[in-house]
Amino acid sequence: MEDCIFCKIISGEIPSELVYKDEQVVAFNDINPVAPVHILVVPRVHIPTLNDMEEEHKELLGHVAWVMKKLAREHNIHESGYRIVTNCGPDAGQVVFHLHFHLLGGRSFGYGRPADDS
Ligand code: 5GP
Ligand code: ZN
């Protein structure tokens, strides 16, 4: 997807602070963090939103969960706790239409708008 900013990060065309990569997934620090740990975990394949998930992606998204669990431990938020967010569509405020998961930790969260509250 030539106009997708996350596809460009995945290809290396746009720089990022990469924290993890494998053949299915990349993870990098959010450019505008809302928590001490704010990592975006992104499947390499361009899936615009969770609405576009197909049955063939079930294993991939299980892998995403596995990577997030490992990253939470690596960043030492596995015991203090963390929040995982995916924004889907306008009401959620989705900005980048390449499926991604926010891994947020290092502070406590309320029950407002998860990626925005402070
Ligand atoms: P969402 O689509 O989940 O609402 O938000 C997209 C997220 O991607 C935002 O938290 C924003 O800060 C982050 N973001 C947008 N552009 C870039 C970028 O070029 N680099 C990085 N590292 N993060 C970005
Ligand atoms: Zn993309």
Structure characterization notes:
The protein is an alpha+beta fold. The chain has a single domain (5-105), classed as HIT-like (HIT family, subunit A, 2-Layer Sandwich), CATH 3.30.428.10. Helix content is 20%, strand content 21%. It is built from two helices and five strands; from the N terminus they run αβββαββ. The chain has a five-stranded antiparallel β-sheet, with helices on one face. The longest helix is centred in the middle third of the chain and has 17 residues, at 58-74. It is globular. Bound molecules: guanosine-5'-monophosphate and zinc ion. Residues 1, 4, 6-7, 46, 98 line the site of zinc ion (ZN). Zinc ion binds next to α1.
Name the average pLDDT.
94
- Amino- and carboxy-terminal Cα gap: 33 Å
Shape: globular
CATH level-four homologous superfamily name = HIT-like
Tell me how many strands there are.
Answer: 5
Q: Low-confidence spans: pLDDT under 50, at least 5 residues?
A: none
Distinct helical segment count: 2
Helix content: 10-25%
**What's the CATH topology label?**
HIT family, subunit A
CATH architecture: 2-Layer Sandwich
Report on the biggest sheet: 5 strands, antiparallel
What labels describe this entry?
HIT family, subunit A, five-stranded antiparallel β-sheet, alpha+beta, 118 residues, 20% helix, binds guanosine-5'-monophosphate, binds zinc ion
Structure summarized in a few sentences:
With 118 residues, this protein is of the alpha+beta class.
Compile the SSE list and pairings.
Layout: H1 5-11, E1 18-21, E2 25-29, E3 37-43, H2 58-74, E4 82-85, E5 101-105
Antiparallel strand pairs: 1-2, 2-3, 3-5, 4-5
The chain binds guanosine-5'-monophosphate and zinc ion.
Guanosine-5'-monophosphate binds next to β2.
